[in-house]
Protein: UDP-3-O-acylglucosamine N-acyltransferase
Organism: Croceivirga thetidis
Amino acid sequence: MKFTATQIAGILEGEIDGNPTAAVHKLSKIEEGEKGSITFLANPKYTSYIYSTKASITIVNKDFIPEQDISTTLIKVDDAYKSFSRLLEYYNQVKNNKVGIENPSFVSESANYGDGFYLGAFSYLGDNVTIGNNVKIYPNVYIGDNVSIADNVLIFAGAKIYSESVIGQGCVIHSGAIIGADGFGFTPNEEGEYSKVPQTGNVILEANVDVGAGTTIDRATLGSTILRKGVKLDNQIQIAHNVEIGEHTAIAAQTGIAGSTKIGKNCLIGGQVGIVGHITIGDRVKIQAQSGIGRNVKDDEVLQGSPALNYGDYNKSYVYFKNLPKLESRISKLEKE
């Protein structure tokens, strides 16, 4: 796909300074710009690169005035960073604008889908699946029986969505994600053997939830595992049965959340965090990477460590942790004296 400076300026409502017919077909960093690419300048520390970049088009702020000759065509906008992000979004929409059903695929006679639907090869749609408009499902995706998928959902190659799951408008599910696998429910008998507890609930993703590659979200034992609108999950996260995550909470990779835990709104959870089951975490909580959470957490707490401490207390304590060998040596010396 090729775009001219005139077309891009129209999309971004920008002003052209240079060649309006300059054409691009790829994106680049400003320091790695090549002919036929488009880049942007937002951070002043990269300003020097605009005089050497070979990018055909560069998006800049309106107040940018070159101090040397440049070869790149400028598109001036109010906010270069936001405009470039907007252009990336537009590019993805164009790139993902596939339609039709590729073969071989299986589509149940009782499944139905809306306008602008795309289904990649080797995919499966089960009985009574309902799919909205402009949904794009890439190859090798499994959609189980009675799944409901709203408008403008993207499901990338190899994702698996088990039966009864509900996927809200604008959700993005990346490759290898598994939505609705059985929760980890077993009961031991007197002989120490385990019997499986049937997992009869489902998973609900509300609007605009992003699920990273390789992430697993288990179905509830009863009721629903729920991710509220705007939740963002990184890759390789485990969310157990009956967990509920509040609106606009973001969770980094390799975090594990045990069953029936409730997490509030607008929380930020770092990578490799472990959270026990059956606790409540409040709103706007921040948990640093590799922390272990074993208790209820109040609104606005900031935690670090395993088991996690208040962030300020942890940092004060760390001063002593790292000096323990020196302190032990001093104590031993004093005892000998």
Q: What stands out?
A: The mean pLDDT is 94. The longest helix spans residues 311-336. The radius of gyration is 26 Å. The first strand starts at residue 3 and ends at 4.
